[in-house]
Design brief:
mainly beta; 5-stranded antiparallel sheet
Length: 552
């Protein structure tokens, strides 16, 4: 039995010795800075149409792909990738291009900070420099750190134990070296093994939290709405679109290939919870309160924080094909004066989603908002459409009030109308030239529009087109549902100096049987509708019959 115990002890000692030797032999290799980088930004999947992007707390994410160079020794090694995004989702990281593959992945949990320096120096010597109050000269001495940085910091020197910065004189702490495992930038590391060694180009790809983007559109009416060819009431407008990008991480991505993805992903993972960014803890020093038991301790009154001054508007770069600005009216004015050639992002298919590739490389700045022009169309053909829903349940008396019609900007997303590219969700500001320059006439929301779709954007109510409509004569008798026809009437007034078209919503499709003469009926957005032309400065009456479908 004693021999067996001795054998087991020798085996355990040998195993521990091998593990220790293996850890000592594993070399740490720093990967180079990225030689190529691409950033693909996915917008916040919970943000609906009309919702503004939250630049202070972006909830989208990005896929970041970096190409770096590493020189590996023979055998086991640890490769460190520094300056990764602090919102990195480490479990999503993939490293390709290594001959030996990946054995283990790690993410540093703590960044270099005053508190981390103190904690890493616990039990070790540091240099304390104080100013002699009598002479004003700095005096340095060695001291040992005896407490962690989660309260008062206590040092041990030749004079005994003392708390830092509690004597009321200036003190400076100097550390000889950075403790092992700390870095000023977020670090991701992997363990690998290579039997021959060498220099390799590897690609690190990962998801990161804290990004978002949205599209902003500027439309300028270059013609007054009015009669066009074939009495279509079409007019010509210019359309410029900007990508507004936000990166809430503390890292910039220089000279990156930028891509954005439009559409809504079905996200099951909590990227915010998985990101677990590294912590840079501050050093908070606590001293015994000064004062007396009768008057208490003095409390410093720091007053209310002063508001930060508003940043000045960024200058508009007139000649740049990719421009950065926060001034919407400046962009509109530049378009009216003649926009320089603005490159269009190339559109690609990504499953059921759309991917837009910005043709020139850009810098996605740390904790910054950037705008990149990506679409510029000078000759988009559109028209104004007026809309009103006439309810069968509304009674129209002879003296009924006239109400304003709703208004829409209508076109088709095809090349014939000057478009033909998928338009991502965003907001549009509509301008019209007047005697005093460009004036804002409307602001509306866009959903995602695929190529070939009809585009109908809601505008404010019209002050020039109004109408009165409803039932006349007959009542809706519950006993006669499905058999009795009910007469409906609408009077439509157009105060514009040109003809207009109005779409009347006569009833929900499948619920009502409708007979209308003198107009073509069609189903649009779940309603039976007709479109009527109303001449300039005139009133038109339109009549139809309606009855409810019989139900079992």
């Amino acid at each position: 039995m004693p021999n067996a115990m001795r054998f087991a002890g020798l085996f355990l000692f040998a195993a521990l010795s091998c593990v220790k030797a293996s850890a000592q032999e594993r070399q740490v290799v720093d990967a180079s800075a990225p030689t190529d980088i691409s950033v693909t930004i996915y917008r916040d999947p919970t943000r609906g149409v009309g919702d503004e992007m939250d630049a202070d707390w972006p909830e989208g994410f990005a896929m970041i792909s970096e190409t770096r160079t590493v020189t590996l020794p023979v055998g086991h090694s640890t490769i460190r990738f520094d300056n990764v995004a602090e919102g990195m989702v480490a479990v999503s990281a993939i490293v390709t291009g290594l001959p030996g593959g990946t054995i283990e992945k790690n993410r540093n949990a703590e960044l270099l900070s005053p508190a981390a320096l103190v904690n890493g120096a616990l039990g070790n010597r540091i240099t304390v420099t104080r100013t002699n109050p009598a002479t004003g000269e700095p005096v340095s001495q060695q001291a040992i750190v005896r407490t962690r940085a989660d309260g008062g910091l206590v040092l041990q020197s030749g004079a005994g134990f003392e708390a830092v910065r509690c004597a009321g004189i200036p003190e400076t702490l100097t550390f000889d070296a950075v403790p092992s495992g700390l870095s000023a930038k977020p670090v991701f590391s992997i363990d690998t093994q290579d039997d021959s060694g060498g220099t390799f180009d590897v690609t690190l790809t990962y998801l990161a939290w804290g990004f978002d983007w949205q599209a902003d559109y500027i439309a300028i009416l270059n013609e007054k709405p009015g009669p066009g060819d074939n009495n279509s009431q079409e007019f010509q407008m210019s359309l410029l679109s900007w990508l507004s990008l936000v990166n809430d991480n503390g890292q910039s991505f220089e000279d990156a290939q930028l891509l954005v993805v439009a559409g809504t992903l079905n996200i099951e993972s909590d990227f915010e919870g998985l990101a677990d960014p590294p912590v840079a803890s501050p050093l908070r020093l606590t001293c015994y309160p000064l004062g007396s038991t009768s008057i208490g301790s003095p409390v410093q009154d720091y007053g209310s924080p002063r508001p930060l001054p508003a940043p000045p508007p960024m200058a508009f770069q007139d000649a740049a094909p990719i421009m950065v600005t926060g001034n919407r009216s400046a962009k509109a004015s530049m378009m009216a004066a003649g926009t320089p050639s603005v490159m269009s992002a190339s559109e690609e298919q990504l499953g059921d989603l759309k991917l837009y590739r910005v043709p020139e490389r850009v810098t996605v700045s740390a904790q910054g908002l950037k705008q990149v022009a990506f679409l510029n169309r000078e000759n988009v053909r559109a028209r104004l459409l007026y809309i009103y829903a006439c309810s069968p349940y509304s009674w129209r008396a002879p003296d009924s009030d006239f109400v304003n019609a709703e208004m829409q900007l209508v076109t088709k997303n095809n090349e014939e109308k000057g478009l033909g590219i998928a338009l991502p969700q965003g907001k549009m500001t509509l301008y019209e030239a007047g005697a005093f320059g460009l004036q804002v006439v409307a602001r509306t929301d866009l959903r995602d529009y695929a190529s070939g779709q009809d585009i109908e954007l809601d505008l404010p109510q019209s002050n020039q087109v109004n109408l009165s409509c409803g039932r006349i004569e007959e009542e809706l008798d519950p006993n006669n549902i499905g058999t009795k026809w009910v007469k409906m009437s609408a009077d439509i007034r157009n105060a514009n100096p040109h003809d207009i078209k109005i779409r009347l919503l006569l009833g929900e499709s499948g619920q009502w049987d409708i007979r209308a003469s003198g107009a073509k009926q069609q189903v649009k957005n779940g309603f039976d509708t007709v479109e009527l032309t109303i001449a300039a400065n005139s009133t038109r009456e339109f009549r139809w019959k309606i009855r409810s479908y019989m139900r079992d």
